[in-house]
Amino acid sequence: MAESYKEIEVSCPICEIVKNIQIPQSILTQKRFGIIKIQVPQGGVCKEHQFIVFINSKGNIMGYETIDLLMKAESPPKENVEILNLNYFIRNFGLYGILSLIHAKIFNYQIYLLRIKRDEKFLALINRILDNLIPEIYREANKVIFLDESDYDNIRLKGNAALIMDSHQNILQTPWDQKLKLKFEENLIEKALEFFDEKEQFLILKRGIKKLIKEAEYAKNALEKVKIIYEDDLIDQLSQDLMEPRINRYRLLLLKEFINRRFSKKLSDEIKSKVEDFLALL
Ligand SMILES: [Zn+2]
C-alpha cells in the first residue's frame, strides 16, 4: 500500500523561513509514542539549517531542537564497501538519527529500527559498526533489532527504555531525559567528519567514547569508596586522578548517566549537588 502523507507547516527555528514538509500518516495515526521527532535536513526547509521538529499525534508542532553541526558538501558514495563511511550513515539515518544511535549504544538502551527495505546483512553491518565503537566488555547482547511497521501497537517494548526510529529518519521515541542534549555525540561526529577515510572517522569516534568510559570507570571507583560525594568534589578528584583539566557539568551528567545505565543507579545517586541539598532543607 502506498504511504500517505500529511503536510505540516514548519518554520526554521533559526532563520524563520517557512515551508511545508510531509509527514507519513502512519506515524500520526499511532498513539503509543506520544511526541515524535522529525528530522529536517539542511535544505529541507531553508538552505542553511538542520533541526528537529517535535510533533504530537495530531500533527501539531510542540517544539524545536536545533543542531549546530553543519554538514559539508558530500563526497561521492563508495560502491560495494564493507566498512561504510560516516556520510553514508548520515544519509541513511539522518544526523540526529546517528547521534541517537551512538547515544543509545554507549548508554545501553535497546534500539529498534522499523524495518527498512534492506536485508539482514544491512542490520548486521549496523550492529557490527555500533559494537565496534565501544570497548568489548560493554557490547553485550544489546543489538539493534528490526521491527515491522505493522507491529507498532503489538510490540512489547521494554518499558520506555528503547530508542525507536522509523525508515523515514523520524525518531519515534528517545528513552533518555530530554534535557540531555546529544552534544557529546555531535562534537564527536564533527571531529570525525574532518576526515574522509572511514577508518579514521571511526577511530575518532572510538577514541572519544573510550575516553568518556574511562572517566566513568574512574568515577565508579571513587563512588565505591564513599556514601555520597558532591559534584564539585568528584570533578576535582577526577581531574587529579586522570591528570586532566576539570570536566564541566554536562560531562559529569554523562558520566552519571553511564554509571546509572551500566553499573548501578545506587552508585550514580551518590553524586549530590549542593543546590539539591539546599533545596531539600527549605
Ligand atoms: Zn534556517
Number of beta-strand segments = 11
- The average pLDDT is 86
What is the C-alpha radius of gyration, as a whole number of Å?
Answer: 20 Å
Bound molecules: zinc ion
Q: Kindly name the structural category.
A: alpha/beta
Query: What oligomerization state is this entry in?
Result: single chain
How many structural domains are formed by the residues? 2
Relative helix content: 40-55%
Number of helices: 10
Q: Which blocks of ≥5 consecutive residues have pLDDT under 50?
A: none
Please tell me about this protein's structure.
The chain contains ten helices and eleven strands. The protein is of the alpha/beta class and 282 residues long. It folds into two domains: 5-187, no CATH class; 207-281. Strand 4 and strand 5 form a beta hairpin. The protein is globular. The protein starts with a strand and ends with a helix. The model has no long low-confidence stretch (mean pLDDT 86). Zinc ion is lined by residues 12, 14-15, 17, 46, 48-49.
List keywords for this structure.
282 residues; binds zinc ion; 10 helices; alpha/beta; four-stranded mixed sheet; three-stranded antiparallel sheet
Helix-strand layout with pairing:
Blueprint: E1 5-11, E2 18-24, H1 25-29, E3 36-40, E4 50-55, E5 61-67, H2 86-93, H3 95-106, E6 110-114, H4 120-133, E7 144-147, E8 162-165, E9 171-173, H5 183-192, H6 198-224, E10 229-230, H7 231-242, H8 249-263, H9 265-269, E11 271-272, H10 274-281
Parallel strand pairs: 6-7, 6-8, 10-11
Antiparallel strand pairs: 1-2, 3-4, 4-5, 8-9
Helix pairs in contact: 2-3, 5-6, 6-7, 6-8
The structure holds zinc ion.
Zinc ion binds at residues 12, 14-15, 17, 46, 48-49.
